[in-house]
Design a protein that fits this description.
The protein has two domains: 19-168, 2-Layer Sandwich (60s Ribosomal Protein L30, Chain: A); 173-420, Orthogonal Bundle (2-methylcitrate dehydratase PrpD), CATH 1.10.4100. Helix content is 56%, strand content 11%. It is built from 16 helices and eight strands. It has helices at 3-16, 24-40, 53-59, 73-83, 98-109, 178-187, 190-213, 220-228, 232-247, 262-279, 283-304, 312-327, 332-346, 358-377, 393-407, 409-420, and strands at 19-21, 46-52, 113-118, 125-132, 135-142, 148-153, 156-160, 254-256. A six-stranded mixed β-sheet has the order 3-2-4-5-6-7. Strands 1-8 form a two-stranded antiparallel sheet. Helix 2 packs across helix 4 (73-83). The longest helix is centred in the middle third of the chain and has 24 residues, at 190-213. The radius of gyration is 21 Å and the shape is globular. The chain starts with a helix and ends with a helix.
Length: 422
């Protein structure tokens, strides 16, 4: 295949499949706070965190990792300032100590942090302001969880980059399309992706097992295995759900993400890895299926945007369904139909913030993706003109992407209003 496309697709995978400790929205706040404290050069006396609505939505109900049971923007910011390591980016809280937690609780009790809503900005935007005496600092993050676009100290701009989505990535996402993704997955040199994908599978299996063993959230993953048995279809649903059980509820194990989300990272990888083991395929075929799954999910999210009212588990599950189809020997047409069927089925699932029920949405989406492959394998596919289904899979992805990105803006606003009601 074209060498430029090959290089870019490989770079996209390396840029996206990175480890993160905890839900990425509170972690992004902690990262911004850790960086602002670094710039300030001292523990702040006052912190102001200004966030877009989607950040507020996704931080409200998840436990901040390392805290045990603490939630919220204030906790994320103060803990990031106290014990965060900005150089570790999405693992910013990985070295938090008991002393850091004690000090964080003390500063929270003193109410040194306040939160403001940013309106008329990108869906993913955070501004952290800090002060101590006459000294002040500011760090702004936009479009991606670690994409710092502005740094100030005492009102002087130390760093600034373009405030636009395209500047948040170092790769060219405009090159993504289904045919090239499929060709890349079929032709990629396995040694170019093996280490990256092994890390994803290893990390994500570890937190899934933790979720099954522990008492996290609503125990969606464990409930699936208890009542539906441990067959492959149940395992494919239960494992990413269990990982989400743990991740949304304070587990300190890292996850390798996809499209800025740990839940999506687990959804694109664990069902595919389980089917690979069940079918007894070669490691090479497993890596190719995981490559396909990851890139298809990234492609869809490129159409949707990082955060919206559209549940990311759906696009991730469509990727997993494609990977599962590939493992069964499906051709490009059946893989494409699997994606179309999945989107036509569960694209109506809304994102009402990060929380325990994300695990159930993952399970439902993966189940739909498996059904969608089985339908496609039997030559059954939803047809153009039925709802938002268009003439081919490419156009259908654009159709549902437009619905999530543009059509659900008002839905997103209303969801936030409802969530913020007393």
């Amino acid at each position: 295949m074209d060498e430029r496309i090959y290089r870019e697709y490989l770079a996209i995978l390396k840029e996206e499949l990175v480890p993160a400790l905890g839900c990425t929205e509170p972690i992004a706040i902690a990262y911004g706070a850790a960086k602002a404290r670094e710039v300030l050069g001292a523990l702040p006396e006052q912190i102001t965190v200004c966030c877009s609505g989607n950040i507020i939505k996704n931080v409200k109900a998840v436990i901040v990792p390392t805290t045990g049971d603490m939630k919220g923007i204030e906790c994320s910011a103060v803990l990031g300032a106290v014990g965060g390591r900005a150089d570790k980016e999405l693992e910013v809280l990985s070295e938090v100590t008991d002393e850091d937690l004690k000090l964080t609780k003390k500063l929270l009790a003193e109410k040194i942090c306040r939160v403001e809503l940013l309106e008329g900005v990108s869906n993913l935007q955070i501004i952290v302001k800090m002060s101590k005496g006459e000294e002040s600092s500011l760090v702004e993050i936009a479009f991606a969880h670690t994409n710092i676009v502005r740094i100030e100290k005492n009102g002087e701009v130390l760093f600034r980059k373009k405030l636009e989505a395209s500047a948040a990535a170092s790769t060219d996402r405009s090159l993504l399309n289904l045919r090239d993704i499929y060709d890349f997955a079929c032709q990629v040199r396995v040694e170019d992706v093996q280490e990256l994908l092994e890390r994803q599978v290893s990390c994500n299996y570890a937190i899934a097992r933790e979720g099954l063993a522990g008492n996290y959230g609503a125990r969606v993953g464990a409930t699936i295995l208890k009542y539906y048995g441990d067959g492959i279809r149940s395992r494919a649903r239960a494992l990413p759900a269990a990982g989400s059980d743990a991740r949304m509820n304070g587990c300190i194990r890292p996850v390798v993400i996809n499209s800025g989300s740990g839940n999506q990272g687990m959804t694109v990888s664990l069902p595919v890895a389980e089917y690979a083991a069940e079918l007894g395929v070669s490691d090479e075929k497993k890596y190719r299926a995981l490559t396909l799954s990851n890139l298809i999910a990234i492609y869809q999210k490129n159409e949707l945007g990082k955060l919206s009212a559209y549940c990311g588990a759906v696009s991730a599950a469509a990727g997993a369904g494609a990977g599962i189809a590939y493992l069964h020997g499906a051709n490009f047409d059946i893989i494409s139909e699997t994606i179309v069927n999945t989107l036509a089925d569960v694209s109506g699932i809304v994102c009402d913030g990060a929380k325990a029920s994300c695990a159930a949405k993952i399970a439902s989406s993966v189940d739909a993706a498996i059904l969608s492959y089985q339908m496609a394998a039997d030559n059954h596919c939803f047809q153009p003109g039925e709802g938002l289904v268009k003439e081919d899979a490419e156009a259908t992805i654009r159709s549902y992407g437009r619905m999530g990105r543009e059509g659900m803006r008002s839905t997103d606003v209303e969801i936030l209003k409802i969530m913020l009601e007393p």
